[in-house]
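[User]
Protein folding is very new to me. Any chance you could explain this protein sequence and its structure tokens? I have pasted everything here:
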Amino acid sequence: MNGRQIIKAKIAGGGECMRTALKPLTPEERAVAETNFWIVGSFLRAQKLPEDEWFDVVIFRYLLTVENWFRKPRLYRYEFTTVEWNAMRSAVGNERKKQRRRIKTVSLYDPVPGTDGLTYADIITEDNLDYTPYMTEVC
């Protein structure tokens, strides 16, 4: 993780998102991050998340939580692993919500959900169009 940097987005009053400059971890933060890096792998395995798809999502939240651990002493009443685990779980949940909001591309050759192999191309043909031709001739 040597000098890994992150972009932090903070929610300011009024719901605005404000970015801060890239900033490396302090030596103390880096030491804690390197010592507890095993938590990331353990989390991904426990949640059965493929590392190649979810590592970026989880590692950035992990590093942000390391920073927060040093900046927010009220977190000391919890185990570091508990704080990290909950933060990474939140990051995965937020990413899944974001993915659900994205527009999904559908192929005409994809099967229609709930049918026995019927594709969109099978139902979107001139014979299957259900419309009333109000104006068929140009006057």
